[in-house]
From TrEMBL:
GO terms for cellular component: cytoplasm; nucleus. This is Putative nuclease HARBI1. The keyword NADP does not apply. GO terms for molecular function: hydrolase activity; metal ion binding; nuclease activity. The gene is Harbi1_140. Keywords: Cytoplasm, Hydrolase, Metal-binding, Nuclease, Nucleus. It comes from Merluccius polli.
Length: 429
């Protein structure tokens, strides 16, 4: 019993001062409006809550009334705290988002490698893939995503400094690059077409004949492979090591006389031979189908001689064969020029820009996307010719990765006859 209290004396609250520890609050201390409201202690939160007496609610128990009041007070307190945070929080700051529309025509071609009209066409092409119907005020416009991806292709800048160009975060830059790449790959069949129809084949043959006047009006393209360097993959890294000891993927490309890409096959690692990639592509089925395609491709000695694949003589014995080799090299130089223009415009594909820090699948997608952009730029006439010194540097690096095909005495007789016929035709021109 507390000191100073007589037996049977009723305890009364002190009018002022601090209440004794452990004593419940009085009605006046809790500011109860009526005498029917009595305080109770919540043992979980150690706070006093107001609970109406069961006299006012005869159909409910004291515990039920206490739980309802506790929930009501908790909601009110949460709303109050949330309101305080909203009022005290900082306002959202929006960065200025830069697009190609803020660039001049010269700046657009220098930074994005395309004209403003070409970039507009790309935005219209990818509007369905990049657009969003979500009512979110923070969604990036299509123009911002396309500008960020094109700058990445053209400059091979890492994503962190690249974020300062579009005024968006690094994660948004990464998402934009992959979204634009996926969209361009899905539309690759619209811009990269091998001449299948008779009309398209005739136009391709005439273009080679007019530009080079060699090997007769039957050339449908020049074929070659190029390497794109990447980081060591997490799985099967050994098969991606090329002749120079670096990791890469080997990509097969066919172009026409105007350096326009008509075929891309990017599915094999850097250790794969060019002839192996050709044998597993769709090209043999096109030329050896029923009916077969009337024409042939040009290639160096990295492939086996076929009726539809004209390669040079490995060991030329006559002046006519040497003349044929010289003309063959001159004509198939169009594919080397195509590689030079492609890697000069889109530095992410060239080793001088650094190693791509992505998986082989993503690097292959980047290459196909750049090929689509290359053909779009050619349609708009905004492809600059490559300097001869730069072209020789590209050729030197490709030759270092090139694996020549050894002499094969079992070459088909029909293929040798066609090459001999073309050699004689060149002699009479």
């Amino acid at each position: 019993m507390p000191p100073g209290r007589l037996p049977g004396e009723v305890f009364r609250a002190r009018p002022t001062g601090r209440r004794p520890r452990g004593r419940p609050r009085t009605l006046s201390e809790n500011n109860c409006a009526t005498d029917q409201e009595k305080p109770s202690l919540n043992r979980k939160t150690h706070r006093y809550i107001r609970t109406p007496d069961k006299v006012g609610c005869p159909s409910r128990t004291r515990k039920q009334n206490s739980d309802d009041c506790q929930i009501t007070l908790t909601i009110i307190e949460m709303e109050y705290v949330l309101g305080q945070r909203i009022r005290c929080g900082r306002e959202r700051v929006y960065r200025p988002r830069q697009t190609y529309l803020s660039l001049s025509e010269e700046e657009c071609r220098q930074k994005l490698r395309l004209t403003r009209q070409a970039v507009t066409d790309v935005c219209h092409l990818l509007a369905d893939e990049l657009g969003t119907d979500a009512p979110c005020p923070y969604a990036l416009p299509v123009a911002v995503k396309v500008t960020a991806a094109l700058y990445f292709y053209a400059s091979w800048s890492f994503q962190h400094p690249l974020s300062t160009i579009g005024g968006i975060s690094q994660s948004a830059i990464s998402s934009a690059i992959h979204a634009v790449t996926s969209g361009l790959v899905r539309h690759a069949g619209k811009y990269i077409k091998f001449p299948i129809t008779p009309d398209s084949q005739e136009r391709t043959k005439q273009a080679f004949w007019i530009n080079f006047e060699i090997l007769g009006p039957g050339v449908l393209g020049a074929i070659d492979c190029t390497h794109v360097q990447l980081r060591a993959p997490s799985e099967n890294a050994l098969i991606y090591i090329n002749r120079k000891g670096t990791h890469s993927i080997n990509i097969q490309v066919i172009c026409d006389a105007a350096c326009k890409i008509t075929h891309v096959f990017a599915n094999y690692p850097g250790s794969s031979h060019d002839s192996f990639i050709l044998a597993n592509s769709a090209i043999p089925a096109i030329f050896e189908g029923n009916p077969p395609v009337d024409g042939w491709l040009l290639r160096d000695n990295g492939y086996l001689l076929k009726t539809w694949l004209m390669t040079p003589f490995i060991m030329p014995a006559t002046a006519r064969e040497m003349f044929y080799n010289r003309k063959n090299k001159q004509t198939r130089g169009v594919i080397e020029r195509t590689f030079g223009i492609l890697k000069m415009c889109f530095r992410c594909l060239d080793t001088s820009g650094g190693t791509l820090q992505y998986s082989p699948q993503k690097v292959a997608a980047f290459f196909v996307a750049c090929c689509v952009l290359h053909n779009i730029s050619m349609n708009h006439g905004c492809v600059d010719d490559i300097n001869e010194e730069i072209l020789q540097d590209f050729r030197r690096r490709d030759v270092e990765l090139h694996v020549p095909m050894p002499f094969n005495p079992n070459t088909p007789a029909a293929a040798r006859e066609r090459r001999a016929y073309l050699t004689e035709e060149l002699h009479h021109l």
